[in-house]
Amino acid sequence: MTDLEIQRDVPLAPLTTLELGGPARFFARVADTETLLAALRWAREEGHEAVVLGGGSNLIVPDEGYPGLVIHMAIGDIDFKDGGRVEVGAGVPWEVVVDGAVTRGWAGLECLTGIPGSTGATPIQNVGAYGQEVSEVIARVLVVDRESLALGDLAPEACEFGYRDSMFKREPGHYVVFGVHFALRTDGAGTVRYAELEKNVPRSASLGEIRSKVLDLRRRKSMVVDPDDPNRRSAGSFFLNPVVTSAEADRVAALAVAEGLAPNIASVPRYPTASGEVKLAAGWLIEKSGIAKGTRRGAVGLSSKHALALIHHGGGTTTELLSFADEVRARVKDRFGISLQREPRLLT
Ligand code: EPU
Fold it and tell me: How many domains does the chain fold into?
């Protein structure tokens, strides 16, 4: 165990991909479970709230910072076992897991490449992209119960995974995730299911080919963090794709055609969900509500490559970003009657 070291007034902006927001009043880096428990105990004894920071890629920090303890998760063990099992500490960068799996010919993560952040964050929002969701290959989630400080491990059913959703997201005060075990498929057959991917690689493509095509598609949308990309300061998709009834989706499509925003109903993007509802494309709704890619409001705006990513150009504030987000939300609501929901977490 490393000793618990509590730092004060640590700037959080450099630890987030948006590069926005104020400092943590208290801050501790934890590299093992004993130090994690010591940090949680310290916060409780001192009467402070505690939150966990992973890769900072899905997080918005308020300008005033965070008044409690920020625990920077750095548990970094990774163990590729036999038979497709992988045991990973929450602080391991996610791409390390994807890379190790694809290199071994283990399937299940090849579409989840190029996603910034740490492994511990993946079950929280049930990371998904290009036809895969991480919940499909999660075997156990290792947790600390914040109340009892007992260590435990949860089966996937207990995590109540949904689209960008889980019990961890809905009940942030319940558990801290400190590790994830994955069960991957050793037969090497990859997932080519997402229409945009199907257009670009054959169904029989190798895991390596699928991964590099996904990386290519993500890069084109500025959804890979690249220091030279002017759209790089983002939190990925800023809003969830709205899930609506099929009657509601029909209404939106008919409205779009009637107002000359789409040539025909079939051209309005919509995706059926397992529950029988329809997922609409938030990026499309934003553009059609009249906010073009690359729109700027001072130091913030929309990515020039993807309307669903709000970006920071540098020198801005979280207040500006959130006010622009409100403007986007209001425009979509006015135009289509659809309420967009924020996807990244606001640190409060
Ligand atoms: N679209 C537009 N304008 C845009 C962007 C998209 O009209 O600026 C339309 C596209 O033409 C397409 C549809 O929207 O018809 C869907 O676009 P895309 O394939 O880019 O995916 P998305 O629905 O915008 C979701 C995830 C992404 C994930 C991609 C690929 C959410 C909130 N976002 O985006 O995840 O990479 O699918 O699977 O579900 C993230 O969560 O941070 C993230 C990047």
Answer: 3
